[in-house]
Design goal:
The protein is mostly helical. Among the domains are: about 180 residues, Rhomboid-like fold (Up-down Bundle), CATH 1.20.1540; about 120 residues, no CATH class. The chain has a 3-stranded antiparallel β-sheet.
């Protein structure tokens, strides 16, 4: 089962630089270093298991060593490994004698883990450097000489890779403490690194926008350390390599649940052959994710997945985020208000827009009017400008209620739109419809009427501008901008080829406003409309 948040896209105006950096570092380490060393262990493993008798000597020696270290279960596993190796060697020797075919390392694949556990134990390796290690037990001189020769050849063949040097081996964690940090930047395969980086990219940026780059990086590294510590508590004696960023990424997921708290988040889930989306408070996912990892740990099929690290990362990240919430509450609230709430508002507006146009297509005009009204109102509440088409649709849908405030207000906003926002002929039609339908009467102020008249005069509708002018000559005779409007109306008629009308308004300017600057310019030599 997979459950991941898919609630928001990154804001590339404020890119998640730390998340991008972490992804790049992990990819560069794997493809730049680890990719080229994948086959370095094969020659040594082939010699040890396929060609030499070293398992015959060292598997029982390592079992005795483990028993002396009070690890009876691990010792029993090594003895079973010896029995398996003896059976496989007998079969391969028979095949060689019969067919002349040599065995491959793949044939011994069930023993690879046992070999690596023994090989990675540096304390046991130090014992093997002695001339006659006591853990070998009673051994004939010829066998001792053969063991010594083969051990020397194996050591010369075996070269520790970068991955081995910097991966976490729980039993050696205190001898190599740097691996508590370095292991989280290493991966075992292409699928491993790409899967982890996809999760990090999908969740990390949403956490980074709330914490900021510095705190986010610190908490990421601490989550990795806490996940490793949790693993050591339960498997501190393990000699198996542990590597990968999943512990730290689990920490990021734990932070996500606490930082977003009860905010409803959109999640994608996939279960067997079924997948879908759902919305739920982010915090609810913490026990679900922890429960899933615990279930897989206790009841799932055998796997190389480090469920202990996942659980430790989830709990550690959640704890770090909780401390941050308590100590930096105002800063977190400000981050939510600045980066999260606007995105949520945008999604709500998009949903409303889809609903409004859908209702319009179904001819459900009442629902469409309510949705467009909500769109405009919420946009204004965010101190943004509503889209011109929303205003036009709302105006047309409100014609059936011409006395409603929304009809008057929408007409006013449409008439104030900057040039180019909407076709001028549509703005002109809005004015005509408004003055014809508005009840009890149009509620445009003198300033608004004056601005509309100027707009129409300059955009090919001088007749409408002239009609508004006649009204203003009565209702706002002393307005300082009336001479300019008369001048614009005269120019509008001249541009439309209506010269007599243009001359009429030019004379009106000189007669009604003889002292105005516009009148002086109109009578100056060389003036042409």
């Amino acid at each position: 089962m997979l459950i991941i948040p898919v609630d928001r896209k990154p804001d590339w105006k404020r890119p998640p630089l730390v998340t991008i950096l972490l992804v790049l570092i992990n990819l560069l380490i794997y493809f730049g270093i680890q990719w080229h060393e994948r086959s370095q262990m094969e020659p040594a493993a082939h010699y040890y298991l396929v060609e030499s008798r070293l398992p015959e000597f060292e598997f029982p020696a390592y079992a005795r060593y483990l028993e002396s270290d009070n690890k009876p279960e691990a010792a029993a596993a090594m003895r079973k490994g010896l029995e398996l190796w003896q059976r496989l060697r007998a079969r391969t020797d028979l095949a060689v004698a019969r067919d002349g075919k040599t065995a491959s390392l793949e044939y011994y694949e069930p023993l690879i883990e046992s070999w690596y556990v023994l090989d990675a134990d540096l304390r046991f390796a130090a014992l093997m450097q002695q001339a006659k290690p006591a853990v070998l037990g009673t051994i004939a001189a010829d066998d001792l000489a053969e063991w010594k020769e083969q051990r020397d050849h194996y050591v010369s063949t075996r070269k520790r890779s970068f991955t081995e040097r910097y991966s976490l081996i729980p039993a050696q964690a205190f001898e190599r403490p740097i691996t508590l940090l370095t292991h989280m930047f290493l991966h075992a395969s292409v699928e491993h690194v790409l899967g982890n980086m996809v999760f990090l990219a999908m969740v990390g940026y949403a956490v980074e926008i709330l914490l900021g780059g510095g705190w986010y990086l610190l908490f990421y590294l601490l989550s990795g350390l806490l996940s490793a510590a949790f693993y050591l508590v339960f498997r501190g004696d393990s000699m198996i390599l542990s590597l990968g960023a999943s512990g730290a990424i689990s920490g990021v997921m734990g932070m996500y649940t606490v930082l977003y708290g009860l905010r409803k988040i959109r999640f994608f889930y996939w279960f067997v052959f079924y997948f879908d989306f759902f919305k739920a408070p982010a915090l609810i996912m913490l026990p679900i994710w922890v429960g899933k990892e615990a279930f897989d740990l206790w009841f799932g099929a055998p796997s190389n997945t480090n469920y202990y690290a996942h659980i430790g990362g989830l709990l550690g990240g959640a704890l770090l985020a909780l401390v941050y919430r308590l100590l930096a509450r105002r800063k977190l609230e400000q981050a939510h208000a600045t980066y999260v709430a606007p995105a949520d508002d945008d999604k709500q507006l998009l949903s409303l827009q889809q609903s409004a146009y859908s209702a319009l297509s179904r001819l459900d005009f009442e629902r469409a009017r309510r949705d467009f009204s909500s769109l405009v109102r919420r946009t204004l509440a965010q101190q943004k400008t509503p889209q011109p088409d929303w205003l036009l649709q709302l105006f047309n849908l409100s014609k059936q209620v011409p006395a409603a405030p929304v009809f008057h207000k929408t007409a006013e906003m449409l008439l104030r739109l900057p040039k180019g926002s909407l076709a001028e002929d549509k703005i002109h039609q809005v004015y005509l419809d408004y003055v014809a339908r508005a009840e009890p009467r149009p509620q445009l102020s003198s300033e608004q009427s004056l601005a509309a008249a100027k707009r129409f005069a300059l955009n090919g509708q001088p007749q409408t501008a002239a009609a508004i002018l006649q009204i203003l000559m009565v209702t706002a005779r002393q307005h300082q901008q009336l001479p300019q409007l008369v001048q614009f109306v005269a120019r509008g008629f001249m541009a439309a080829g209506m010269h007599e009308k243009a001359q009429h308004y030019q004379k009106m300017l000189q007669q009604q406003f003889p002292l105005s600057e516009e009148s002086r310019l109109a009578t100056s030599p060389g003036n042409r409309y």
